[in-house]
Amino acid sequence: MKKFAMVAFVIAAIVWLLNSSILATPPAGETKVLAHRGIHQVHKPDGVDEKTCTASRIEPPRHSYIENTIASMRAAFDNGAEVVEIDVHLTPDRKFAVFHDWTLDCRTDGSGVTEETPMSELKRLDVGYGYTADGGKTFPFRGHGEGQMPTLTEVFDALPHGRFLINFKSERREEGATLAVLLRIQPKWRKQVFGVYGGRTPTQEALRLVDGLRGYDRQSTLSCLGRYVAYGWTGLVPEACHDTLIVVPGNFAPFLWGWPHRFAARMQAAGSDIILAGANGGGDFTTGIDSADDLALVPENFSGYIWTNRAEAIGPLLSKNLAASNDSE
Question: What positions belong to coiled-coil segments (predicted)?
Answer without folding.
Answer: none
